[in-house]
Amino acid sequence: MSNPIVRSVILDIEGTTTPISFVYDVLFPYVRQNLKSYLTQHWESDIVKNDVSMLFQQNKLDRTGGDDKFKDTPKILYDAEDISDSTTQIQSVVDNVFYQMDRDRKSTPLKQLQGHIWLQGYQQGTLKGVVFDDVPVSLEKWKQLQIPVYIFSSGSVEAQKLLFNYSDHGDLIPMLSGHFDTTIGSKLESISYTNIIDQINLKAPVKPSDFLFVTDSIHEAKAAKEVGLNVSVSIRPGNPPIQDPSLPTFNKITDFHQLFDQYKFGK
Ligand SMILES: CSCCC(=O)C(=O)COP(=O)(O)O
Ligand SMILES: [Mg+2]
Protein backbone atom coordinates (compact mmCIF):
# COMPACT_ATOMS: atom_id res chain seq x y z
CA MET A 1 0.00 0.00 0.00
CA SER A 2 1.27 3.49 -0.79
CA ASN A 3 2.10 5.93 1.99
CA PRO A 4 -0.72 8.20 3.21
CA ILE A 5 -0.46 11.80 2.02
CA VAL A 6 -0.19 14.26 4.89
CA ARG A 7 -0.75 18.02 4.55
CA SER A 8 -0.12 19.13 8.14
CA VAL A 9 1.71 17.79 11.20
CA ILE A 10 0.72 18.08 14.87
CA LEU A 11 3.39 17.25 17.45
CA ASP A 12 3.25 16.42 21.14
CA ILE A 13 6.18 17.68 23.25
CA GLU A 14 7.04 15.48 26.25
CA GLY A 15 8.27 12.09 25.01
CA THR A 16 8.02 13.22 21.36
CA THR A 17 10.00 16.37 20.53
CA THR A 18 11.58 16.45 23.97
CA PRO A 19 12.98 13.89 26.42
CA ILE A 20 10.67 13.11 29.33
CA SER A 21 13.69 13.60 31.59
CA PHE A 22 13.90 17.30 30.66
CA VAL A 23 10.32 17.78 31.87
CA TYR A 24 10.61 15.67 35.04
CA ASP A 25 14.21 16.36 36.05
CA VAL A 26 14.53 20.00 35.03
CA LEU A 27 11.22 21.80 34.38
CA PHE A 28 9.12 20.38 37.20
CA PRO A 29 11.83 20.70 39.89
CA TYR A 30 12.34 24.31 38.75
CA VAL A 31 8.68 25.00 39.59
CA ARG A 32 8.95 23.32 42.98
CA GLN A 33 12.10 25.27 43.86
CA ASN A 34 10.82 28.66 42.73
CA LEU A 35 7.07 28.56 43.32
CA LYS A 36 6.95 30.15 46.77
CA SER A 37 9.41 32.94 46.03
CA TYR A 38 7.71 33.61 42.68
CA LEU A 39 4.29 33.94 44.31
CA THR A 40 5.65 36.07 47.15
CA GLN A 41 7.44 38.42 44.77
CA HIS A 42 4.57 38.80 42.30
CA TRP A 43 1.57 38.30 44.60
CA GLU A 44 0.01 41.67 43.72
CA SER A 45 0.60 41.35 39.95
CA ASP A 46 -2.30 40.82 37.54
CA ILE A 47 -0.67 37.67 36.16
CA VAL A 48 -0.44 35.98 39.56
CA LYS A 49 -3.90 37.21 40.58
CA ASN A 50 -5.34 35.63 37.42
CA ASP A 51 -3.37 32.38 37.88
CA VAL A 52 -4.40 32.06 41.54
CA SER A 53 -7.99 32.86 40.73
CA MET A 54 -8.03 30.05 38.10
CA LEU A 55 -6.45 27.62 40.58
CA PHE A 56 -9.00 28.69 43.17
CA GLN A 57 -11.95 28.05 40.80
CA GLN A 58 -10.54 24.62 39.96
CA ASN A 59 -10.02 23.94 43.66
CA LYS A 60 -13.65 24.80 44.46
CA LEU A 61 -14.82 22.42 41.73
CA ASP A 62 -12.50 19.65 42.96
CA ARG A 63 -13.73 19.99 46.52
CA THR A 64 -17.42 20.09 45.65
CA GLY A 65 -18.15 17.29 43.28
CA GLY A 66 -15.59 17.46 40.49
CA ASP A 67 -13.41 14.47 39.77
CA ASP A 68 -13.43 12.10 42.79
CA LYS A 69 -9.69 11.58 42.36
CA PHE A 70 -9.03 15.13 43.55
CA LYS A 71 -11.54 15.36 46.40
CA ASP A 72 -8.82 15.49 49.07
CA THR A 73 -7.04 18.37 47.35
CA PRO A 74 -5.62 20.97 49.77
CA LYS A 75 -7.91 23.98 50.10
CA ILE A 76 -6.74 27.23 48.57
CA LEU A 77 -7.41 30.10 50.97
CA TYR A 78 -8.46 32.85 48.61
CA ASP A 79 -12.16 33.37 49.35
CA ALA A 80 -13.47 36.48 51.12
CA GLU A 81 -14.29 34.48 54.25
CA ASP A 82 -10.88 32.79 54.19
CA ILE A 83 -9.01 36.03 54.14
CA SER A 84 -5.90 35.67 56.17
CA ASP A 85 -2.42 37.08 55.73
CA SER A 86 -0.78 36.68 52.34
CA THR A 87 1.84 34.28 53.73
CA THR A 88 -0.91 31.82 54.69
CA GLN A 89 -2.66 32.29 51.34
CA ILE A 90 0.56 31.71 49.43
CA GLN A 91 1.34 28.59 51.45
CA SER A 92 -2.14 27.22 50.63
CA VAL A 93 -1.47 27.77 46.91
CA VAL A 94 1.95 26.10 47.21
CA ASP A 95 0.39 23.06 48.96
CA ASN A 96 -2.27 22.79 46.27
CA VAL A 97 0.20 23.12 43.37
CA PHE A 98 2.53 20.50 44.91
CA TYR A 99 -0.45 18.17 45.37
CA GLN A 100 -1.38 18.53 41.69
CA MET A 101 2.21 18.10 40.55
CA ASP A 102 2.62 14.98 42.71
CA ARG A 103 -0.19 13.51 40.59
CA ASP A 104 1.18 14.92 37.31
CA ARG A 105 -2.16 16.56 36.76
CA LYS A 106 -2.62 18.25 33.39
CA SER A 107 -5.07 20.90 34.57
CA THR A 108 -5.12 24.17 32.64
CA PRO A 109 -4.63 26.41 35.73
CA LEU A 110 -1.60 24.40 36.89
CA LYS A 111 -0.03 24.40 33.42
CA GLN A 112 -0.60 28.14 33.02
CA LEU A 113 1.12 28.93 36.32
CA GLN A 114 4.04 26.60 35.54
CA GLY A 115 4.60 28.45 32.25
CA HIS A 116 4.80 31.79 34.06
CA ILE A 117 7.40 30.44 36.48
CA TRP A 118 9.52 28.96 33.67
CA LEU A 119 9.57 32.36 31.89
CA GLN A 120 12.03 33.80 34.42
CA GLY A 121 14.22 30.67 34.18
CA TYR A 122 14.46 30.88 30.39
CA GLN A 123 15.06 34.63 30.44
CA GLN A 124 17.81 34.31 33.05
CA GLY A 125 19.45 31.49 31.09
CA THR A 126 18.90 28.91 33.85
CA LEU A 127 16.58 26.93 31.55
CA LYS A 128 17.18 25.88 27.96
CA GLY A 129 14.52 23.88 26.10
CA VAL A 130 15.71 20.44 25.05
CA VAL A 131 14.64 18.86 21.76
CA PHE A 132 15.94 15.68 20.15
CA ASP A 133 18.55 16.26 17.42
CA ASP A 134 16.25 15.01 14.65
CA VAL A 135 13.56 17.58 15.48
CA PRO A 136 15.08 20.80 14.04
CA VAL A 137 16.13 19.10 10.79
CA SER A 138 12.67 17.61 10.35
CA LEU A 139 11.01 20.96 11.05
CA GLU A 140 13.29 22.43 8.39
CA LYS A 141 12.29 19.72 5.90
CA TRP A 142 8.59 20.31 6.51
CA LYS A 143 9.12 24.05 6.10
CA GLN A 144 10.78 23.47 2.74
CA LEU A 145 7.87 21.24 1.72
CA GLN A 146 5.44 23.96 2.92
CA ILE A 147 3.86 21.57 5.42
CA PRO A 148 2.54 23.54 8.41
CA VAL A 149 3.59 22.07 11.78
CA TYR A 150 1.64 22.66 15.00
CA ILE A 151 2.23 21.73 18.63
CA PHE A 152 -0.45 20.18 20.83
CA SER A 153 0.76 19.74 24.39
CA SER A 154 -0.69 19.81 27.90
CA GLY A 155 1.92 22.47 28.62
CA SER A 156 0.42 25.94 28.16
CA VAL A 157 0.91 27.72 24.85
CA GLU A 158 3.18 30.21 26.63
CA ALA A 159 5.27 27.35 28.05
CA GLN A 160 5.48 25.68 24.63
CA LYS A 161 6.70 28.88 23.00
CA LEU A 162 9.39 29.32 25.66
CA LEU A 163 10.70 25.79 25.14
CA PHE A 164 11.03 26.22 21.36
CA ASN A 165 12.15 29.85 21.52
CA TYR A 166 14.96 29.10 24.00
CA SER A 167 15.82 25.65 22.65
CA ASP A 168 19.25 24.06 22.75
CA HIS A 169 19.05 24.13 18.92
CA GLY A 170 18.28 27.85 18.74
CA ASP A 171 14.97 29.59 18.15
CA LEU A 172 12.62 27.06 16.51
CA ILE A 173 9.49 29.22 16.68
CA PRO A 174 9.77 30.31 13.01
CA MET A 175 9.47 26.62 12.05
CA LEU A 176 6.07 26.30 13.75
CA SER A 177 2.71 27.45 12.43
CA GLY A 178 0.87 27.46 15.75
CA HIS A 179 0.27 26.01 19.20
CA PHE A 180 -2.61 24.31 21.01
CA ASP A 181 -2.97 23.46 24.69
CA THR A 182 -5.69 22.07 26.94
CA THR A 183 -7.81 25.19 26.51
CA ILE A 184 -8.95 23.52 23.27
CA GLY A 185 -9.78 20.33 25.20
CA SER A 186 -8.08 17.38 26.86
CA LYS A 187 -5.56 15.43 24.80
CA LEU A 188 -7.45 12.30 25.77
CA GLU A 189 -10.69 13.43 24.11
CA SER A 190 -11.25 12.90 20.37
CA ILE A 191 -13.22 16.13 20.10
CA SER A 192 -10.05 18.11 20.86
CA TYR A 193 -8.45 16.84 17.64
CA THR A 194 -11.56 17.76 15.67
CA ASN A 195 -11.45 21.23 17.24
CA ILE A 196 -7.80 21.62 16.24
CA ILE A 197 -8.48 20.57 12.65
CA ASP A 198 -11.29 23.11 12.52
CA GLN A 199 -8.89 25.85 13.61
CA ILE A 200 -6.08 24.97 11.21
CA ASN A 201 -6.53 26.75 7.93
CA LEU A 202 -5.74 24.18 5.24
CA LYS A 203 -6.97 24.66 1.70
CA ALA A 204 -10.43 23.05 1.34
CA PRO A 205 -11.57 20.35 1.15
CA VAL A 206 -10.06 19.26 4.47
CA LYS A 207 -10.33 15.77 5.92
CA PRO A 208 -8.87 14.35 9.18
CA SER A 209 -6.51 12.09 7.22
CA ASP A 210 -4.74 15.24 5.93
CA PHE A 211 -3.18 15.43 9.41
CA LEU A 212 -0.50 13.47 11.17
CA PHE A 213 -0.34 13.49 14.98
CA VAL A 214 2.82 12.26 16.69
CA THR A 215 2.64 11.42 20.39
CA ASP A 216 4.20 9.15 23.02
CA SER A 217 0.83 8.55 24.69
CA ILE A 218 -1.16 5.56 23.45
CA HIS A 219 -4.29 7.12 24.95
CA GLU A 220 -3.79 10.33 22.96
CA ALA A 221 -2.97 8.22 19.90
CA LYS A 222 -6.26 6.34 20.22
CA ALA A 223 -8.26 9.55 20.69
CA ALA A 224 -6.77 11.11 17.54
CA LYS A 225 -7.10 7.92 15.48
CA GLU A 226 -10.77 7.61 16.44
CA VAL A 227 -11.57 10.80 14.50
CA GLY A 228 -9.48 9.82 11.49
CA LEU A 229 -6.07 11.45 11.93
CA ASN A 230 -2.94 9.56 10.92
CA VAL A 231 -1.00 8.77 14.07
CA SER A 232 2.56 7.68 14.76
CA VAL A 233 3.51 6.68 18.28
CA SER A 234 6.80 8.11 19.50
CA ILE A 235 9.05 5.65 21.30
CA ARG A 236 11.98 7.75 22.48
CA PRO A 237 14.84 6.80 24.81
CA GLY A 238 13.56 7.22 28.37
CA ASN A 239 9.87 6.78 27.52
CA PRO A 240 8.13 4.15 29.66
CA PRO A 241 7.25 0.96 27.75
CA ILE A 242 3.72 0.88 26.28
CA GLN A 243 1.80 -2.25 27.30
CA ASP A 244 -1.47 -1.41 25.56
CA PRO A 245 -2.64 -4.23 23.23
CA SER A 246 -3.51 -1.69 20.51
CA LEU A 247 0.12 -0.61 20.04
CA PRO A 248 0.74 -2.97 17.06
CA THR A 249 -2.05 -1.22 15.13
CA PHE A 250 -0.07 2.07 15.10
CA ASN A 251 2.91 3.29 13.12
CA LYS A 252 5.82 3.73 15.51
CA ILE A 253 8.93 5.91 15.35
CA THR A 254 12.05 6.28 17.44
CA ASP A 255 13.26 9.25 15.38
CA PHE A 256 11.41 11.83 13.25
CA HIS A 257 13.37 10.81 10.13
CA GLN A 258 11.23 7.64 10.06
CA LEU A 259 8.12 9.78 9.51
CA PHE A 260 9.44 10.58 6.04
CA ASP A 261 9.38 6.84 5.24
CA GLN A 262 5.89 6.32 6.69
CA TYR A 263 4.12 9.27 5.00
CA LYS A 264 4.27 11.35 1.86
CA PHE A 265 4.16 15.04 2.77
CA GLY A 266 2.47 17.13 0.11
CA LYS A 267 0.27 20.21 -0.14
C1 LIG B 1 6.40 23.14 27.51
S1 LIG B 1 5.53 21.77 27.81
C2 LIG B 1 6.01 21.34 29.41
C3 LIG B 1 5.70 19.98 29.68
C4 LIG B 1 4.41 19.80 30.39
O1 LIG B 1 4.09 20.53 31.28
C5 LIG B 1 3.56 18.71 30.00
O2 LIG B 1 2.57 18.45 30.66
C6 LIG B 1 3.88 17.97 28.77
O3 LIG B 1 2.84 17.23 28.30
P1 LIG B 1 2.75 16.72 26.79
O4 LIG B 1 1.31 16.91 26.46
O5 LIG B 1 3.66 17.54 25.93
O6 LIG B 1 3.13 15.27 26.80
MG1 LIG C 1 3.69 13.46 25.55
From TrEMBL:
GO MF annotation terms: acireductone synthase activity; magnesium ion binding
Major location category of this protein: cytoplasm
GO term, biological process aspect, one: L-methionine salvage from methylthioadenosine
Keyword terms, alphabetized: Amino-acid biosynthesis, Cytoplasm, Hydrolase, Magnesium, Metal-binding, Methionine biosynthesis, Nucleus
Pfam families, A to Z: Hydrolase
Pathways involved: Amino-acid biosynthesis; L-methionine biosynthesis via salvage pathway; L-methionine from S-methyl-5-thio-alpha-D-ribose 1-phosphate: step 4/6; Amino-acid biosynthesis; L-methionine biosynthesis via salvage pathway; L-methionine from S-methyl-5-thio-alpha-D-ribose 1-phosphate: step 3/6
Ligand binding (substrate): 153-154, 187
Keyword Hydrolase in annotation: yes
Binding residue positions for Mg(2+): 12, 14, 216
Subcellular location: Cytoplasm; Nucleus
Broad enzyme group: hydrolase
Domain of life of the organism encoding this protein: Eukaryota
The record's free-text note on cofactor binding: Binds 1 Mg(2+) ion per subunit.
Catalysed reactions, as listed in the record: 5-methylsulfanyl-2,3-dioxopentyl phosphate + H2O = 1,2-dihydroxy-5-(methylsulfanyl)pent-1-en-3-one + phosphate
Entry's EC annotation: 3.1.3.77
Essential cofactor(s): Mg(2+)
Chain's role: Bifunctional enzyme that catalyzes the enolization of 2,3-diketo-5-methylthiopentyl-1-phosphate (DK-MTP-1-P) into the intermediate 2-hydroxy-3-keto-5-methylthiopentenyl-1-phosphate (HK-MTPenyl-1-P), which is then dephosphorylated to form the acireductone 1,2-dihydroxy-3-keto-5-methylthiopentene (DHK-MTPene).
Subunit structure: Monomer.
Full protein name: Enolase-phosphatase E1
Organism this protein belongs to: Tieghemostelium lacteum (Slime mold)
